[in-house]
Design brief:
The complex is a heterodimer. By secondary structure, chain A is an alpha/beta fold. Chain A folds into three domains: about 160 residues, Immunoglobulin-like; about 70 residues; about 180 residues, Rossmann fold. Chain A is elongated and about 90 Å long. Helix content of chain B is about 65%, strand content about 0%. Classes of the chains: A alpha/beta, B mainly alpha.
Chain lengths: ~450, ~230
């Protein structure tokens, strides 16, 4: 009845043409791929038919048909507008309605007649969940419950507010995906890198000799501690301003172990202010172990490793004040730093301290490079622990990293070549890049890199 | 055993769970649990930190060490803030429970804690942050000295970016038409190329190295190869 009304309207307006809005013949709902059972994908019209064809082709083992002459949902243009339509108004919309059916009724203590064996009972009325533009053929419904079956139907809504009769219904239940298959390629890459690290660690344990290049910043640690000893001043070590759950803090603590061993050997003072009490506890254990390993447990003073405050600039004020008053001869900054990096480095510079910094915060590296004597940049900082320990199994992990770098280099070259070539390939009618090459680039960026 | 083996086992199990959580949806809830455990541990550690702060500063005062006056101020500030926060001094009661004086939030507007935070802490933190501007100037002065070819290139690059950032900088090359072949020498184009191309290239190269370093360090912790963070036996 309502459809007839709409048709009459169009005849009156004298604008009935081939692009007039019609209810989709095919409505389809399917589980959303690689989610935790919270989403469903609703398809209609050409997109639904295309999806049917793809599924049929996959089942029969044939190649997936391209578009069967239809344009993909995302590129379908809005149908021609009737003359009465104002340009600033959408032509028509699809109204998506949904109702849910509880698959397994949960016990309700307030109801005496509750029967857990009863069939599906929680049938509700259809409710509107969304209105989408007339040029769309897909809708993703979110925040759903895996215990429900969801039934969908679609209606047409014209600019004058007229709503058509509903389309056929389609239903589905969201399913929990145990493995996120969209990240499988990333997982594979991770396995290769981790596998190579483990392989080289085992190879080093078996006696394989590994050549590691010299890192100036780490070679200078002994020089800095020696200088502090000669000057009779302390060494100041700051393990970043993040908590121990940050891998940079862990890396900083491993460098602290080596610095503490040296200060124990040289009988130099060591001062370690921290912003987190957990870091203080870990640092105390580490320094205690280092002093014991150096054969000078008597020199260990836990009061030299202390908590200041969690607040960034409160910590900055306390540490820079201490720098100015006590004038440490060597300052080490190893961990995660933010705006305070340059304040520390410049203050220590004014008191004439030798400074060695290491961080994996790219935005702070220029500040450290400008103000410090030596800087461990990114991977060098993480390599410090292995380098300083000199243990073969730890050095093996550095070789494993090189395999990762090699693979990353290959992908960079491949990506650069593909992107360059893609600039010369045929472009589609609307100017977008098309063809297999673009598919390869999309595959690399979306599946492999997971962007 | 208690000091090394058990912490290593815990670190390995938790680390593996966190890795698997990235690939499996059901395990993601375990990740939340693990993070919650860390928060609980951090709360206990906070008590430890507060105790350490008090002990350290009291020791400084009693031994009249250099800067003991600052230690006294630190302790005073700590206790005043703690009492204002825990005692909810000046906190207006919650609108739902007007009969209960302590029902409002400790950081409610108008409370003593709120006042200390907004009128003492925030200005002090802003002052410390503001000193950064002077330190940037002094660091730039040293870094941009044209002692050799590399330093000269750095100076030139920095100057170009700096001038292009100013409001009048782009006017220097305004005479070059947009559509001419010389347009690549317009100062804002050069700045864009330096910042978006060369800077991005360098940053990404560092980021790749960092990512691989993180993987390697994490594996060493998970496998117990690097135990230096656990201290001695």
């Amino acid at each position: 009845m309502r459809i007839s009304t709409i048709m009459i309207c169009f005849v009156i307006c004298g604008s009935v043409n081939a692009a007039e809005p019609q209810l989709p013949e095919r409505v389809k709902v399917k589980d959303f791929e690689n989610d935790k059972g919270e989403k469903l994908r609703l398809l209609w019209g050409a997109a639904a038919i295309e999806d049917d064809e793809k599924e049929a082709a996959l089942k029969s083992g044939k190649s997936v048909p391209k578009t069967s002459g239809r344009k993909p949902a995302s590129t379908i243009k809005e149908p021609k507008k009737d003359r009465s339509h104002k340009p600033d108004q959408p032509y028509f919309k699809y109204v998506i309605e949904r109702k849910s059916i509880l698959l397994k009724p949960e016990p309700d203590p307030n109801r005496d007649d509750f029967d857990p064996e009863a069939p599906l009972i929680a049938l509700r009325e259809f409710e509107v969940v969304a209105e989408v533009e007339g040029n769309k053929q897909e809708f993703v419904d979110k925040e759903l419950d895996r215990k429900h079956n969801y039934v969908y139907r679609i209606k047409l809504k014209l600019p004058n507010g007229t709503i058509s009769d509903p389309s056929q219904t389609a239903s589905a239940t969201p399913v929990l995906q145990w493995v996120d298959q969209s990240k499988l390629y990333f997982g594979l890459f991770m396995l290769v890198v981790c596998g190579s690290v483990v392989y080289f660690i085992e190879a080093a344990k078996a006696g394989k000799t590994l050549k590691i290049r010299k890192i100036a910043g780490l070679e200078a640690i002994e020089e800095a501690v020696g200088r502090a000893t000669e000057m009779g001043r302390d060494c100041l070590f700051i393990p970043g301003i993040q908590d121990i759950n940050d891998i940079q803090t862990v890396a900083g603590i491993t460098v602290l172990s080596r610095v503490a061993e040296l200060t124990a050997e040289y009988d130099a003072g060591l001062d370690v202010p921290t912003t987190r009490s957990l870091v203080m506890t870990v640092a105390r254990e580490t320094v205690d172990g280092a002093y014991t390993a150096a054969g000078r447990p008597d020199l260990y003073n836990p009061d030299n490793i202390y908590y200041v405050t969690d607040e960034q600039f409160g910590f900055v004020a306390a540490v820079t004040g201490k720098m100015v008053r006590e004038k440490p001869a060597a300052c080490f900054y190893m961990g995660a730093f933010y705006a305070e990096s340059l304040i520390f480095a410049e203050t220590a510079n004014t008191v004439g301290a030798i400074q060695i910094a290491g961080t994996a915060m790219p935005s702070q590296l220029p500040f450290f490079v400008a103000a410090c004597d030596y800087v461990l940049i990114g991977e060098e900082f993480f390599a410090a622990s292995a380098y300083l320990s000199g243990e073969p199994q730890q050095l093996g992990s550095l070789k494993g990293q090189d395999v990762g770098k090699f693979i990353a280099g290959l992908f960079l070259i491949l990506g650069a070549v593909l992107m360059t070539v893609s600039q010369f390939v045929h472009r589609g009618e609307s100017g977008e890049k098309t063809g297999d090459l673009q598919n390869v680039i999309s595959f690399i960026t979306e599946s492999l890199l997971g962007t | 055993m208690l000091k090394r083996t058990i912490p290593l086992i815990i670190a390995s199990i938790v680390g593996i769970v966190l890795i698997l959580a990235k690939f499996s949806h059901p395990i993601q809830s375990w990740e939340t649990e693990v993070v919650m455990w860390f928060d609980i541990l951090a709360v206990f550690a906070f008590v430890l930190g507060a105790g350490n702060l008090n002990l350290n500063n009291l020791k400084k005062i009693s031994e009249r060490k250099a800067g003991w006056g600052y230690a006294a101020i630190t302790l005073l500030a700590f206790w005043i803030t703690l009492i204002c926060g825990i005692g909810k001094l000046g906190v207006p009661p919650n609108e739902k429970y007007l009969a209960y004086a302590w029902s409002g939030s400790y950081e409610a507007e108008g409370s003593a804690f709120w006042w200390i935070f907004n009128y003492v802490y925030v200005p002090l933190a802003a002052t410390m942050f503001a000193t950064l501007a002077f330190y940037i100037s002094s660091a730039a002065f040293r870094a941009f000295r044209a002692n050799n070819v590399e330093a000269s290139l750095l100076l030139l690059t920095a100057l170009l970016v700096l001038v292009a950032q100013t409001s009048s900088g782009p006017m220097l090359t305004d005479q070059i038409p947009e559509e001419s072949a010389w347009a690549i020498f317009k100062i804002d184009t050069i700045r864009g190329t330096l910042v978006n191309l060369f800077n991005t290239l360098g940053t990404r190269a560092i980021m790749i190295g960092i990512a691989l370093g993180v993987v390697s360090t994490s594996l060493k912790v998970l496998m117990g190869v690097d135990q230096s963070y656990l201290g001695g036996d």
